[in-house]
Amino acid sequence: MSEQKQNNNNFGFGPKSGNKDQKENDKKPKFNITWIYGIIVIFIIGMMFFPMGNEPVEVMWGRFRNKMLKTHSVEKIIIVNGDRAEIYIKSDKKSDPDFSDIKTPSSSGMGMSSADYYMKIGSIDRFTGQMDEAMDEFDYEPSEYVEVGYDTRENHMDWIVSWVIFPLLLIGVWLFIFKRMAGGGGPGGQIFNIGKSRAKVFDKEGAEVKVDFKDVAGLEEAKVEIIEIVDFLKKPEKYTQLGGKIPKGALLVGPPGTGKTLLAKAVAGEAHVPFFSMSGSDFVEMFVGVGASRVRDLFKQAKEKAPCIIFIDEIDAIGRARGKNANFGSNDERENTLNQLLTEMDGFGTNSGVIILAATNRADILDRALMRAGRFDRQIHVELPDLNERKDIFKVHMRPLKKLGPNVNADFLAKQTPGFSGADIANVTNEAALIAARQEKDKVEKQDFLDAIDRIIGGLEKKNKIISPNEKRTIAFHEAGHATVSWILEHANPLIKVTIVPRGQALGAAWYLPEERQLTTKEQMLDEMCAALGGRAAEELFFGQISTGALNDLEKVTKQAYAMVSYFGMSEKIGNRSYYDSSGQSEYSFGKPYSDETARTIDDEVKRIIDESYDRAKVLLNKYKEGHNKLGDMLLDKEVLFAEDLENILGPRPNGKNPYSFNDEALENVDIVDAEVKKEEKIEEDRKKDKDSTPKE
Ligand code: NHX
Ligand code: ZN
Questions:
Q1: Is residue 353 part of a domain?
Q2: How far apart (Å, rounded) are the C-alpha atoms in residues 202 and 230?
Q3: Which of 497, 551, 636, 641 is the pocket-test mutation for ligand 1 (most atoms within 8 Å of CB)?
Q4: When comparing pLDDT for 661 and 428, which is higher?
């Protein structure tokens, strides 16, 4: 099991503002407008097929001539649009049985004509000619002649269909397609909003932001800086009257989960000015130029509401250093967005009252231009919490837990969680509460917290994994190997427990409590490597065969050895040279900054260091064979062993001078047995020396 500090990198999940946006959007009662559209369409179609009002009855020429003209019953005729003759019957004739099919007009009938009959006609001339002929034939007096009027009437239905419904339908289809293309759903998913900024605005009332600086535990230095920023906005005169300029932006830098976003939220909660929050990835879209236009829009909005704060989370999404060799795997669109951001930051005056906060966990990869004076001219480093800060963070997160067991102690838990970030601690307390609830307990107890810590570091326990007895023995001996070696070595991390219960990816693990230190000495590194190789060494010595299980151990050891040689100047052959690239911009873009010869030397040195550590582990295990085997058997039996058990078997940890401290010459070209003899002699000597020289207190 690797130590907690290293493992911790896998557990960075700060709250992402994007998720929140999504949730709030879903919460809105979504009234389904499609239904209304559907009803309207059905209604209109219905109107087309079943017109309202009374449509006159259709008649043919024969009936018109013989039953209407002949009986002198026609009052007038209106020719509509040149193809339809509407016939009005004299009111005194309407009671005639011939006209019993006239529909009684229902109150004016929605713009329809109130004619009694109609007839389709071929042409006006022909129709009027025929009528004249018929009227002559039926002896019409000139005064009796049926009047013929003309009318052009627009068909409203046709008009509506061609000018309203059809275009509406087109627009609907078009919108639908673009909504899909724009990714649909999300806020601003509509095509019209594509260039708008997606910033979430928290207004002065700050109703949504309930975080203030009281909720931010630890981070004292960062808080001082950030409180000053709040002050800039509240009382700018205080700073400008002395001629000072208000900074434009500050960059929050720190590993994941350390509370960068939380700090920004606290600023929003305290500043009482509008707060624009968005994530760097919100600028990115598949359409060209969208990122830049979103930046523009964001700044436009911000300037309107100044004084205010803009917060850009995960700014590395757009702020990554622009490639030197353009258009080779570089992203033009991202560069445009970045350029726009740079221009906007330069563009507004220093005292315009807009302050930009940005968060990233990788300041090293950011473009230099972003960090020069006048842009993000302040960097606020947010580091992993130390012991005291973790204690405070535990206290903050334990507040909402209703009932705590009597033995739960934030101090103790802080000691158990070196290398944890604030987010990890939040996770631990929550997990502990869940574990307690699962067991139907009415309190969250210390053991629940410990189980939660194990879970966060190692993953889920997998008690039911099928492991053959032979494998079980291998695992037990492997872990006992780690335990034994690390117990004996003075500079190795102190062991808390060993277990052969599978958890997450690992089949077994040795858990250490790494010391909280800023510097690591060569001896500490070598001892740690030796302990890491103890597993494989035990497999080889006591099983005669080695397994794939040592993968993680070997990976860790190899990286460590490589770092010692090529970064930390800890090998004589390479000397005090470091090929570490802190700029992170691979300034040595053409391969390695050293010759092939040096590369070979590095490889040789790495191999030597690892081989020597391995030999050392084997020597130690050989010497402490009995203790190791006892440990292995006990592990098979109990599955978990704690430091007390190790002490019972192996005796107290060496706290004096370590008899096996690393010595370059002593191990070179010496086989194991030889080395063992020499070492044993040396221990005796050292012990004697120790007894003689160290004064007793
Ligand atoms: C596996 N894991 O993945 C199993 C579950 C020596 C008893 N096969 O050093 O758990 O064996 O001190 C492909 C091939 C991980 C992927 C081999 C992923 C090997 C942890 C290593 C305990 N404790 N090792 C340890 C462990 C493993 C691994 C692999 C893989 C073991 C060891 C993993
Ligand atoms: Zn191991």
A1: no
A2: 15
A3: 551
A4: 428
